[in-house]
Amino acid sequence: MRWSPKAAAIPLLLSDDILSGSFELGSGSEGEYAVQLVKSPGAKYFDKLWVDANKNGEAEAGEWLSTEPNESRYKMWSSFKTVLTVDVLDPETQTTVQNPYPVSMWYVEDLREEQSEHALRFTRNGWMIGQVELDGVLAHIRLSESTLDGLFNSEDEWTLALPDSIQNIYAFQQDRDAKRHAWLGEKAYRLVDINPTGRTVTVAPVDPGVTRAQELLDDDQLAVDRQAPHSGREVDFKLDFESAQQEARDKNKILFIDFETVWCGPCKTMEEWVYTADSVVEASESFISVKVDGDDFPDLAKRFEVAGYPTMIKMSPSGEILGKVVGYQGVEAMAKFLKE
Q1: CA distance 198 to 155
Q2: Given the DSSP bridges, would you call strands 287-293 and 254-260 parallel, antiparallel or unpaired?
Q3: One of 267, 270, 277, 306 is an active-site residue; which one?
Q4: Alpha-carbon distance 131 to 166, whole Å?
Q5: How far apart are CA 294 and CA 267, in angstroms?
Q6: Active site residue 264
Q7: What's the pLDDT tens digit per position in 186-200?
Q8: In 3-state terms, what secondary structure has residue 331?
Q9: What's this model's pTM, rounded to 2 decimal places?
Q10: Of 20, 49, 77, 286, which is the most exposed, with the fewest CB atoms less than 10 Å away?
């Protein structure tokens, strides 16, 4: 699959230019993996990672990973890939199952300021896949983690696919919360039980009370925004904060600040559907509006306490914060925020 859940963070402590920490996967008391990030002789950035794959507390030669750090948007990325073995207790047999656990791990260092906190992040690259006969159809089934703990349960994700549509097993659009039913053709099924090893599940038919087509419409969270009137106009965003702030002061207008980044998906969606909606454009006309890339201007992001993207702020000519919202805002919500 070309997608994975939000990464988990492993806190690291810095001592003598070595970053150390640990994280847990699987079940039982032997599920802790120690990690260390170090620099090769003469290296400026962390380029070697030790993961205690056999959990014996000793750094063995085969457990060291190497990388060539890469710079991207004022940050240095040290990225690694490996496959761990995760022990999971099977409650049905009371035996321990060992699952391969492919992971991507990375450490990011900000090049513009000294870091006070350090973390190694990781996400899973693997999943469980199999077949199940449902109403005479031998279907494909996929189970994958959402919570990165090496265990499978109702907090994770799944999907079904018809025999001739196995590609749907890997599609993000087909992914379902494990608490929710999945569709096989026009029939719906639910997970009755999930073995924490991920090796077996129990599936049963369910009546969701709606058709697959209707549910697809109900789940389309952007439908309302796409259907809002769009006449071809867009919010007149400036790109220079200082000049925009000065113009707001000179004209005694409120400054509308949209903090975004180039990697922010919701920011791009708002750019396409929200900031081009007639009601939002009209509501913005009494403001001076400016876009700020939080990666390009970290001092401004810090000044306005931006903790996530997008973040939208209204500021008076005198510098008073009049309103602040974080995360995707639909057409109705954004027009209301601007009009308040």
Answers
A1: 13
A2: parallel
A3: 267
A4: 11
A5: 12
A6: yes
A7: 999 999 999 999 999
A8: helix
A9: 0.85
A10: 286
Each domain of the chain, given as residue ranges in start order, spans: 8-124, 128-219, 226-339
Asked if 133 is an active-site residue, the reply is no
Structural contact between residues 312 and 258, judged by C-beta atoms closer than 8 angstroms = yes
Q: pLDDT digit string (tens) for 253-276?
A: 999 999 999 999 999 999 999 999
Confidence of residue 140 (pLDDT cuts 50, 70, 90): very high
Q: Which one of the listed residues 34, 148, 254, 264 is annotated catalytic?
A: 264
- Give the domain 226-339 fold: Glutaredoxin (3.40.30)
Per DSSP, 300 falls in state H
Spatial distance between the Cα atoms of 305 and 294, rounded to a whole number of angstroms:
11
Q: Which two tokens stand for residue 74?
A: 């004022």
Rg of the chain over Cα atoms, rounded to whole angstroms, equals: 25
Token pair 């240095």: residue? 76
Residue 249, judged by CB atoms within 10 A of its CB (0-12, 13-18, 19+), counts as middle
Half-sphere exposure of 129 (CA within 13 A, CB side): 10
